[in-house]
């Protein structure tokens, strides 16, 4: 593939898939072509871009035309695929990336991804010394990027919609068969997706990492205490079934030495230094411990774990994300081609109430970590308080009610003092 003299725009996708990726690719391509730019799609994220191998790079570049993308916004997945390659971790990765982009006369780049992809984009932008302008379109079903006014990241609403439907199905199955389900939802850093799914579907209870505050580590036993209390409370109320939702990011707070002691658990890390959560079967860990506890009391408990992770990521986007991604792609090109002095910086593209509001790379960096800031669930917000109020979790008023406390303790086959000693702390946050 040979480059041409006119300016070009490149597009790549990094990180995990999310519903709506193709919508952004389509909108960027269409608007860039209308503005007279060549458009190149770079396959597999940064994987080939960082290599000092011209043939390998060129073999993984596709010139995009409007006819190639005009109807792909309905589809899940990514026509450019994706990867988790970290340019900063590959020897000479930044230098190679800049050199490869120059070969195609790429003056503008649209990167689509989460915090790790935006971090890679910021490093390549630094290496290009202003020669290549970057616009990063925030993508993650985790909804954890710092977009103003609590605006969601694209893909989140579709993932929540499908996740909610799946949880409703599990709730009906649980009621029909008299069993418990533990559903793990994605959310490495933040619990937006787990909480959003649980709240909208009316799941029995949910646990997210944010509710434990700023503590560095959480013990698996403490997580199980909370869910055990939920099951006992439901049983005391005459219901021995339910669906428990947990954010996968809770596992990030487990001590690695604790995980290493558990048979079958691999402690591995990806190119960005993150624990490979796919190797930590959080649902099974919780299920096995809960079953052990109930069996020790000679109580029967049928429990099944399931993971809502990968099944959500390539679902066809709902109309919300179809429309939203068109806005984002259009505004990414509009931003890149803007001649206003204030728009010379590389930026994350935000569309707030229909209006472009760029967030500059420099302003996104957390001074403590040197990486992109993270938007956590605000456990002091009314939205979170409402979610908690509809969960069946042990509460202080349950323990203050002498008659109900007696019933809870009897259900757990404990004395009232034993029950308070074991579960009292779970009502304090």
Would you spell out the secondary-structure blueprint of this structure?
Layout: E1 8-13, H1 21-34, E2 38-42, H2 54-58, E3 61-63, H3 66-69, H4 93-103, E4 106-113, H5 115-128, E5 133-138, H6 156-177, E6 180-185, H7 192-201, E7 205-207, H8 220-236, E8 242-247, H9 256-260, H10 282-296, E9 303-307, H11 309-313, H12 319-336, E10 347-348, E11 351-352, E12 355-356, E13 359-360, H13 361-364, H14 382-389, H15 396-400, H16 402-411, H17 416-423
- Say what the CATH topology of the largest domain is: Rossmann fold
C-alpha Rg (nearest Å): 24 Å
Helix content: 40-55%
Strand portion, in percent? 5-15%
Number of domains: 3
The structural class is alpha/beta
Provide the succession of SSEs: EHEHEHHEHEHEHEHEHHEHHEEEEHHHHH
Largest sheet: 7 strands, mixed
Q: pLDDT average, as an integer?
A: 92
Number of strands: 13
Strand order of the largest sheet: 3-2-1-4-5-10-13
Using the alpha-carbon principal axes, give the shape. Answer: elongated
**Counting H and I runs of at least 4 residues, what is the number of helices?**
17
Low-confidence regions: none
* Second CATH tier, the architecture of the largest domain: 3-Layer(aba) Sandwich
The end-to-end span amounts to 59 Å
Describe the structure.
With 429 residues, this protein is α/β, with parallel strands linked by helices. The protein has 3 domains: 8-154 and 317-364, Rossmann fold, CATH 3.40.50.450; 160-311, Rossmann fold (3-Layer(aba) Sandwich), CATH 3.40.50.460; 394-429, no CATH class. It has 17 helices and 13 strands. The protein has helices at 21-34, 54-58, 66-69, 93-103, 115-128, 156-177, 192-201, 220-236, 256-260, 282-296, 309-313, 319-336, 361-364, 382-389, 396-400, 402-411, 416-423, and strands at 8-13, 38-42, 61-63, 106-113, 133-138, 180-185, 205-207, 242-247, 303-307, 347-348, 351-352, 355-356, 359-360. The strands form 3 sheets. It has a 7-stranded mixed β-sheet with strand order 3-2-1-4-5-10-13, sandwiched between helices. Strands 7-8-6-9 form a 4-stranded parallel β-sheet, sandwiched between helices. Helix 1 (21-34) runs parallel beside helix 12, helix 4 (93-103) crosses helix 5 (115-128) and helix 8 (220-236) crosses helix 10. The model has no long low-confidence stretch (mean pLDDT 92).
């Amino acid at each position: 593939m040979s480059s041409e003299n006119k300016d070009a725009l490149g597009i790549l996708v990094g990180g995990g898939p999310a519903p709506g990726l193709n919508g952004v690719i389509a909108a960027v391509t269409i608007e860039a072509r209308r503005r007279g730019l060549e458009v190149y799609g770079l396959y597999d994220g940064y994987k080939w871009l960082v290599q000092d191998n011209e043939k390998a790079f060129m073999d993984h570049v596709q010139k995009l035309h409007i006819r190639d993308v005009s109807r792909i916004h309905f589809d899940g997945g990514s026509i450019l695929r994706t990867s988790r390659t970290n340019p900063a971790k590959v020897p000479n990765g930044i230098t190679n990336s800049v050199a490869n982009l120059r070969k195609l006369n790429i003056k503008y780049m649209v990167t689509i991804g989460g915090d790790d992809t935006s971090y890679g984009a910021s490093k390549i932008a630094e290496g290009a010394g202003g020669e290549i302008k970057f616009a990063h379109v925030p993508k993650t079903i985790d909804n954890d990027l710092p977009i103003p006014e609590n605006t969601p990241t694209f893909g989140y609403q579709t993932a929540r919609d499908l996740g909610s439907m799946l949880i409703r199905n599990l709730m009906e199955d649980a009621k029909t068969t008299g069993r418990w389900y533990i559903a793990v939802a994605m959310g490495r850093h933040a619990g937006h997706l787990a909480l959003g799914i649980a709240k909208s579907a009316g799941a029995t209870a949910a646990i997210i990492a944010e509710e434990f505050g700023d503590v560095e580590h959480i013990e698996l036993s403490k997580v199980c205490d909370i869910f055990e209390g939920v099951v006992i409370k439901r049983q005391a109320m005459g219901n021995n079934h339910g669906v428990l939702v947990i954010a996968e990011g809770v596992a990030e707070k487990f001590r690695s030495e604790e995980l290493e002691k558990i048979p079958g658990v691999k402690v591995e890390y990806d190119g960005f230094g993150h624990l490979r959560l796919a190797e930590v079967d959080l649902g099974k860990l919780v299920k096995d411990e809960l079953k052990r506890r109930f069996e020790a009391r000679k109580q029967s408990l049928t429990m099944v774990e399931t993971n809502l992770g990968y099944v959500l990521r390539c679902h066809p986007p709902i109309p919300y994300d179809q429309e939203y991604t068109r806005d984002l792609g259009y505004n990414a090109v509009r931003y890149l081609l803007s001649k206003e002095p204030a728009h010379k910086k590389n930026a994350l593209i935000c569309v707030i109430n229909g209006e472009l509001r760029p967030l500059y790379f420099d302003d996104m960096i957390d001074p403590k970590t040197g990486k992109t800031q993270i938007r956590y669930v605000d456990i002091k917000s009314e939205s979170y308080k409402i979610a908690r109020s509809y969960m069946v979790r042990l509460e202080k008023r349950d323990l203050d009610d002498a008659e109900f406390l007696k019933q809870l303790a009897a259900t757990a086959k404990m004395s009232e003092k034993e029950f308070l000693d074991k579960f009292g702390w779970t009502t304090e946050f």
